[in-house]
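dude i think i finally got it to work??
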Amino acid sequence: MRKYAFAFLFLLFLCPAQSKASVYEQNNYCYNYVASFGSSASLSCIFPTAVNSGKVVVTGHASDLTSFTTSCTETCVCPSPATQTFNLSGFIHQEFICYADITTTHSTFTFTITATVGGARSLMLEGFQVTGLGSGDDGAAGANNANTTNITTTGNNEYIFSTCNTTNVSEPFATGSNFQVGKIAPSDVNNIVNIDMGQNAATTGTYTASCSNGGSGGVVTEVAAIAFTTSGGSVPAVHIVQRCFVAGIASGGGCGLSNVSSSNKLLYNFYGQTIAQLSPATGSPVCPANSYVTHNYGGVNFSTGMCYKDGASGNFGATASCGGCNVLAVTEIEIAGLNTGIDTGSETGLAATSGTFTAAASNEWAMYSAQDNAANPMTPASGFTYIGTWFTFSGCCNGGTQQFMLALEPNVPSGSNSVSYSLTGSTTPVMTVSAFVQSATAFVGTHQIISAKNQTEQEPDGLISVQ
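look at this
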């Protein structure tokens, strides 16, 4: 049975008669999961880099947790209409959306959930920092023990955030006018998939949050939704459109992207112990040999590498397998604004927390993925910007928590460049980095869009914006 994971979808929307506004995710993103969550225990989602503006939105799902409390670096708001509780054969499932408005600068940001009754078999948290949303919410929220729920907005040009949890045997996707902004699924929790979705609400009215469900028999499906006002902003020409993540697999698994554009680039980053291969569901990626690295730590081989694919379209999935490994992680990312191919010679695999790579030209776009094992969060260095951390492999390998981090640097100079991250207590570092030529003439910041996709337009100044 294939295990599907996490697709984080950041897309663009154009409505001709509306004023310009955009909703996009900043670099901060976190995902944390625990398979056994006891009574009165807690789990945190941590942004290890500065949070200074916008809104932090957190979604979660708990299995067999009857009630909980939350705490944040700033005030958490968890509207009760955006929380769904369902009893399936004596197991209480909770689906919820919370948020916090950022009013001051924080070097890190933490969201924590604490069990007050019961002992959850599993708990998943996903959080991201969003720009372009107004403070608070518009009062419209809803939840349902089904794969749809309706909410009625109170104003024009609002943004509806929703989350759908389903236990099923085939991969679910957002449906209707919803678009996916995230998908997470630890492989050892009965194929539980949590999908985060967005929807643009141009005018006041009733909107439906919905997802597909391919499962049968004993399936749990819960949906929660909440509407926010929008406040505007600009989006860079080179940006991550969507991504997915699967982790914690014992033999193999995959993740899928939806409605991929053939003009964009797909990047695959993978990690495992004794990993054997990476193979997409459709077509074949280019996997430069120099991006691979394998190193033995304590008698266990740790491996990582990077592949890319140009010209893919439609729904596109990646699968990976590893013979006898007890950890495997794969990310698949769609990126707009990069030329086809790769800067040949930049591909570098490292069994260390730091090293160098070579860019053939100035202003190239570089990305690395790094994996390590320690209790403290990883943070990027050498000018790279954090775009996501996953803490999912507790108890792996040499103890501690196995982590997977992505980071990018949008305009590296030509020649030799440093690449590194910091992690107190690092024990099993492996890292892969590659550089690509940017096709866009302007790049501002390192933001990621989470807006709907219908029509897109390139502004004269090289920035893509939402109208």
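Confidence is low (pLDDT under 50) at residues 1-21, 394-399, 441-467.
im so relieved honestly
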